[in-house]
Design brief:
The protein has 13 helices and no strands. It has 330 residues and is mostly helical. Helix 6 packs parallel to helix 8, helix 6 packs antiparallel against helix 9 and helix 8 runs antiparallel to helix 12.
Length: 330
Amino acid sequence: MAIDLRTVSITPLRQTFGHLARRMGADKPASRYMEATMDLQPVENYHYRPTWEPQYEIFDETRTKVTMKDWYALKDPRQYYYGAWTLARGKMQEIAEGDFDLVDELGLAAAYPAAGKEEALKVFLPLRHVAWASNLNKAYVSSYGYGIAISQAACYASMDQLGVAQYTSRLGLAFNDLDALAAAKTAWLEGAEWQELRRYVEDLMVEKDWFEVLVAQDFALEGLLYPLIFERYNEKLNAAYSPVFSMLTRFQREWFGETTKWLDSILKVTAADNADNKAQLAEWIKHWRERALKAIKPVAVLAFGAEADAILDELVQNLNARAAKAGITL
């Protein structure tokens, strides 16, 4: 019996979904990110208002002082939808796990000098509580942010902070087992040098304006804290001891570098939308930058001693430069 195989070309009736075709102005093929993001949030026919805040709709633009002509202008330059984000984080996790396995296999954590362990743990390990707070604050942004473009990216960033907290805890376990985690918790709750930072992140848990929380947590605080710890302090420990600390904090460094691109893009688009946004962002950044500086200064002194002021001045200049690049004059 002979079987003839033929290639049949089927022309699709349309290239994309109707809501994307209406937005894009023509029936053009759309990326997976566009399909999984644009105009997916309900905007009408709500059945009821939230009983805990009846002055708002469930999804309500007025939950923030920022206004936008189109909330879907806040697109993620990384093009992260759920599938792309899980693939990217899976790759980062695989590399991080490899680093932890190598350190364990070669006994590098056990061989790390005792003075280095003490320095690393006293400055680094309480930050797992900051990561947990960051998870909650980013989750708030995701819950009350308007438009899938911003809320899904904030949700991914929130989940990323759980990973940061877990990898921070694992470094503590590798260096000093459970005693390290107990000591870090005591320092976070009772240590004088941590109370301003603790107050900062806890105050954000009751801040109502979700965009202000985004600015305060992601830009002002993490924009100073991550370079301080994962760049400057990392370099100090590497020079004094060995690159083991650097190997065990790769996830945090890579995450901050990648997420900074998203956040700077959000600020730039928001500031460019209208003059009131630009003025509001400048006001928030100046306010929360000063509070963040006050909050992390005791930690910087703990890490760098007399050099802390000079390092913080440089980090503030870098943060101001990021704001200026986004079109925000401080």
